[in-house]
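Thread amino acids onto this structure.
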C-alpha cells in the first residue's frame, strides 16, 4: 500500500478534478502490475495497473489507495474492471467520499466474490488526497500558503525588491510545489510588482505547470504583462468583481484570459470564501498561494489557509521591509491562527518548514 501511495503522489497537480490514485497488483509475492491516475484524471490507476498485469491479474491482490469507482462516467467503473480481470482480493486505503461511490465500489467487489480489506493506511491516503476530500466536502480546494522570507519574516525590502531572498535550491523546490498543485494564485500587487510567469521551469516538468490565477478585482493588471501575453499557451484566470468595466473585461478576454466573477465582501474587496467556492466548482483540488502579504493576511483572517510552506533565508531585512502577512487585526496571541509543523528540510543555506492548520 505504501508503494500505491507513492505512485499516487506522482499525479499531484495533474489529475484534477479527479483524485490521484495509485494501484499495485501482487500475485504470488511479486508485483505484476502498477498504475497511477494519468493527467486529466484518466485513465484511472486500476485500469493502468491491470493493463500492465495482463493475465497475471487473475487470482492476484490489488492494493488501491482509494476505493475503486463504481459509477459510469467518461470511463467504465474500475470495480467492474477488477472483477473482469479476475482479481481475488482488493485492499483499499480510503473510502471514496464522492456520493456516486461512497462504499458502492467495495460492495460491488464483494458481491462478485472478491475479498475486500478496507482502511489500510487510511490516514496517509487522506493526507495525500486532502484537496480532493475538501472539495467534495466543502466545495473548495486545499489552500497552501507559500512564503519565502528572511529570518524576520520579510518578503521584500522597503523598495519592494524581492529577488532573490532565497537561494537556488529553495527556488527549485518552489517550482516543484507549483508542479504539485492544480493552480497558483497571486494578488494583483504581486502581479504588478513582480510581473511573474507562475510556471514550473524545472527540467522535464514544464508540462506540469499549474493554472495561473490573479486576484485582481478591478483588472489593474497591464495587458502587456507576462501573464496576459502568455495566456493563450497557459491557462490564466483572473478573479474580478461584478462592477469591473465591460470594455476592460473584453480586452482581457480577447487576450485569452478567463475572467471569474466573484462578489464583493463587506469591505468592497473580493470575497475570498466565494472565490474559493468558484475555483472548487471548476474542479480545483489544490491551490498554491504565492503572495503577497495582503492576500496572505486576508486568507489567514478568513480561516482559509490549510497548509503553509515557509522558505526561510538566513538574512535580516528589518522593519521597513514588506511583511509576509499584512496586518489583519489580531488583538491577542491566543487568537492567532495556529499551525502544526509537519516537516523541516534544509535547502542549501535556506530552510523549508511545512505546517498544517490546527483546527
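Threaded sequence (359 positions):
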Amino acid at each position: 500500500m505504501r508503494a500505491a501511495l507513492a505512485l499516487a503522489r506522482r499525479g499531484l497537480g495533474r489529475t484534477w478534478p479527479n483524485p490521484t490514485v495509485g494501484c499495485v497488483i501482487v500475485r504470488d509475492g511479486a508485483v505484476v502490475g502498477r498504475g497511477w491516475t494519468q493527467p486529466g484524471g484518466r485513465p484511472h490507476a486500476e485500469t493502468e495497473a491491470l493493463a500492465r498485469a495482463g493475465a497475471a491479474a487473475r487470482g492476484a491482490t490489488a492494493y488501491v489507495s482509494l476505493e475503486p469507482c463504481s459509477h459510469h462516467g467518461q470511463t467504465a467503473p474500475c470495480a467492474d474492471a477488477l472483477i473482469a480481470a479476475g482479481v481475488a482480493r482488493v485492499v483499499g486505503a480510503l473510502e471514496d467520499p464522492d456520493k456516486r461511490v461512497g462504499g458502492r465500489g467495495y460492495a460491488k467487489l464483494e458481491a462478485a466474490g472478491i475479498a475486500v480489506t478496507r482502511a489500510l493506511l487510511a490516514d496517509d491516503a487522506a493526507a495525500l488526497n486532502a484537496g480532493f476530500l475538501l472539495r467534495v466536502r466543502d466545495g473548495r480546494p486545499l489552500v497552501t500558503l507559500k512564503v519565502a522570507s528572511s529570518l524576520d519574516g520579510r518578503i521584500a525590502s522597503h523598495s519592494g525588491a524581492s529577488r532573490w531572498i532565497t537561494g537556488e535550491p529553495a527556488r527549485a523546490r518552489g517550482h516543484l510545489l507549483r508542479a504539485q498543485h492544480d493552480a497558483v494564485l497571486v494578488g494583483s500587487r504581486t502581479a504588478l510588482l513582480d510581473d511573474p510567469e507562475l510556471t514550473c521551469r524545472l527540467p522535464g516538468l514544464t508540462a506540469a505547470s499549474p493554472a495561473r490565477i490573479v486576484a485582481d478585482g478591478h483588472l489593474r493588471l497591464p495587458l502587456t504583462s507576462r501573464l496576459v501575453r502568455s495566456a493563450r499557451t497557459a491557462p490564466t484566470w483572473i478573479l474580478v468583481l461584478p462592477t469591473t468595466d465591460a470594455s476592460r473585461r473584453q480586452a482581457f478576454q480577447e487576450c485569452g484570459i478567463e475572467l471569474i466573477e466573484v462578489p464583493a465582501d463587506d469591505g468592497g474587496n473580493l470575497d475570498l470564501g466565494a472565490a474559493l467556492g468558484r475555483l472548487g466548482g471548476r474542479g480545483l483540488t489544490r491551490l498554491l498561494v504565492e503572495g503577497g502579504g495582503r492576500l496572505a493576511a486576508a486568507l489567514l483572517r478568513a480561516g482559509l489557509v490549510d497548509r503553509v510552506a515557509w522558505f526561510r533565508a538566513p538574512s535580516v531585512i528589518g522593519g521597513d521591509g514588506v511583511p509576509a502577512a499584512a496586518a489583519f487585526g489580531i488583538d491577542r496571541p491566543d487568537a492567532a491562527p495556529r499551525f502544526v509543523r509537519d516537516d523541516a528540510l534544509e535547502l542549501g543555506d535556506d530552510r523549508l518548514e511545512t505546517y498544517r492548520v490546527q483546527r
